[in-house]
């Protein structure tokens, strides 16, 4: 992604957040199921869909806050554009 944060559309922002959640989850060696269970969900539906912004599924602020605690990362990391 070669755009600056301020230039992202809302859809691109949700895709960025989902991509970052997936990357940090994988770095923590957690499966989608493990993260879902830690968040209090019984299935991977939310995590798997929101990570790729499928059917307009996205993480809300409370979910991102919970994920940041589970993965032990700063909340703001979800909004950073990673250099490829």
Structural class: mainly alpha
**Content of β-strand:** under 5%
In CATH, the homologous superfamily goes by the name lambda repressor-like DNA-binding domains
Radius of gyration: 12 Å
The assigned CATH architecture is Orthogonal Bundle
Total number of helices:
4
Domain module tally: 1
**What characterizes the major β-sheet?**
none
Q: What's the SSE pattern?
A: HHHH
Share of helical residues = 40-55%
Protein name: Transcriptional regulator, XRE family
InterPro entries: Cro/C1-type_HTH, Lambda_DNA-bd_dom_sf
GO molecular function: DNA binding
What does this 3D model show about the protein?
The structure is a single chain. With 84 residues, the protein is mainly alpha-helical. It has a single domain (9-76), classed as lambda repressor-like DNA-binding domains (434 Repressor (Amino-terminal Domain), Orthogonal Bundle). It is 52% helix and 0% strand. The longest helix is centred in the first third of the chain and has 18 residues, at 10-27. The radius of gyration is 12 Å and the shape is globular. This is Transcriptional regulator, XRE family. One of its GO terms (molecular function) is DNA binding. It comes from Arcobacter defluvii. Residues 21-78 form the HTH cro/C1-type domain.
Index terms:
single chain; 84 residues; mainly alpha; 434 Repressor (Amino-terminal Domain); 4 helices; 52% helix; 0% strand; Transcriptional regulator, XRE family; Lambda_DNA-bd_dom_sf; DNA binding
Topology (SSEs and partners):
Layout: H1 10-27, H2 32-39, H3 45-51, H4 61-71
Outline of this structure?
The chain has four helices and no strands. With 84 residues, the chain is mostly helical. This is Transcriptional regulator, XRE family.
